[in-house]
UniProtKB/TrEMBL annotation:
<dbReference type="InterPro" id="IPR001789">
    <property type="entry name" value="Sig_transdc_resp-reg_receiver"/>
</dbReference>
<feature type="domain" description="Response regulatory">
    <location>
        <begin position="4"/>
        <end position="122"/>
    </location>
</feature>
<keyword id="KW-0597">Phosphoprotein</keyword>
<dbReference type="InterPro" id="IPR016032">
    <property type="entry name" value="Sig_transdc_resp-reg_C-effctor"/>
</dbReference>
<dbReference type="Pfam" id="PF00072">
    <property type="entry name" value="Response_reg"/>
</dbReference>
<keyword id="KW-0238">DNA-binding</keyword>
<dbReference type="Pfam" id="PF00196">
    <property type="entry name" value="GerE"/>
</dbReference>
<keyword id="KW-0805">Transcription regulation</keyword>
<dbReference type="InterPro" id="IPR000792">
    <property type="entry name" value="Tscrpt_reg_LuxR_C"/>
</dbReference>
<protein>
    <submittedName>
        <fullName>Response regulator</fullName>
    </submittedName>
</protein>
<feature type="domain" description="HTH luxR-type">
    <location>
        <begin position="151"/>
        <end position="216"/>
    </location>
</feature>
<dbReference type="InterPro" id="IPR058245">
    <property type="entry name" value="NreC/VraR/RcsB-like_REC"/>
</dbReference>
<keyword id="KW-0804">Transcription</keyword>
<dbReference type="InterPro" id="IPR011006">
    <property type="entry name" value="CheY-like_superfamily"/>
</dbReference>
<dbReference type="InterPro" id="IPR039420">
    <property type="entry name" value="WalR-like"/>
</dbReference>
<feature type="modified residue" description="4-aspartylphosphate">
    <location>
        <position position="55"/>
    </location>
</feature>
Length: 218
C-alpha cells in the first residue's frame, strides 16, 4: 500500500507543486489538499492519512494548532505530521515539536529529500532539517532545562545500553548507523529504541532526541 498523504499549505502553487512531486513517487499517494489548518484537520478525520505535510503559517488555523489537534485526537496510532517552512528557526517549530510533530523540513529542500522525509516519518522515525537540528533541539532543551532541576525518574528505568542508544539517537544516527557504532544487530537496536520510547512514554524519535538534550545526555 502506498503512503497516504495530505498536503496543507495556503499558497495554491506551492501546495499543488508539493502534491505533484509527492504523487509522482510510486510509493506515495496524495489523498487531499488543504488550504489552511482547519481544513487539514477536517481532511485528516475524513481520509486518515499516514502523513500530513503541514505548512507552519496559514490563515484560519496555523500549522501548530492543527498539529496539536490532529495528534491530540489520534494519539500514537494516528498520522505523523511533517512540518514545512521557509524559516530555519521559526518560533512555531519549537512548539510544533512539543505538540507532536514528527519532522521538520525546509521548503527549499531537494525533491528527493521531501519524499524521503515523508517515508521516514511514515515509518515512525523522526526527521529534522540537518541545517537546524542541533540549534533547534539545543534551544528547546535549554528552555525546558531552566524549568527542570531534578533528573526525571523515568531516566532511571533505562539500562546502560539503552542510554547509549538514546545518545546515538540524539546525534541523529539511524538504526543501521547505531548498530555499526555499538557493534549490534540492527534488529537489536530497533528493539532497544522501542523499549526506550515505551519506558520514557515518548511518541517517536523526535521526542527522544529532545528528551536526551533536556537531560544532558548529549
Amino acid at each position: 500500500m502506498p503512503i497516504l498523504v495530505i498536503v496543507a499549505d495556503d499558497q495554491d502553487m506551492v501546495r499543488d507543486g508539493i502534491a505533484a512531486l509527492l504523487d509522482a513517487a510510486d510509493d506515495i499517494s496524495v489523498a487531499a489538499q488543504a488550504a489552511d489548518g482547519r481544513e487539514a484537520v477536517a481532511l485528516t478525520r475524513e481520509h486518515r492519512p499516514d502523513v500530513v505535510v503541514m505548512d507552519v503559517r496559514m490563515p484560519e488555523m496555523n500549522g501548530l494548532t492543527a498539529t496539536r489537534e490532529i495528534v491530540g485526537e489520534t494519539g500514537e496510532d494516528g498520522p505523523r505530521v511533517l512540518m514545512l517552512t521557509t524559516f530555519d528557526l521559526d518560533e512555531y517549530v519549537y512548539e510544533a515539536l512539543g505538540a507532536g510533530a514528527s519532522g521538520f523540513l525546509l521548503k527549499d529542500a531537494p525533491v528527493e529529500d521531501l519524499r524521503a522525509a515523508v517515508r521516514v516519518v511514515a515509518a515512525g522515525e523522526a526527521l529534522l532539517a540537518p541545517s537546524v537540528t542541533r540549534r533547534l533541539i539545543s534551544d528547546i532543551a535549554q528552555r525546558r532545562r531552566e524549568k527542570v532541576h531534578a533528573r526525571p525518574k523515568s531516566m532511571e528505568s533505562l539500562t546502560p545500553r539503552e542510554a547509549d542508544v538514546l545518545r546515538h539517537i540524539a546525534r541523529g544516527l539511524s538504526n543501521g548507523e547505531i548498530a555499526e557504532e555499538l557493534f549490534l544487530a540492527e534488529q537489536t537496536v530497533k528493539t532497544h529504541v522501542g523499549r526506550i520510547l515505551t519506558k520514557l512514554t515518548l511518541r517517536d524519535r523526535t521526542q527522544a532526541v529532545v528528551f536526551a538534550y533536556e537531560n544532558g545526555l548529549v
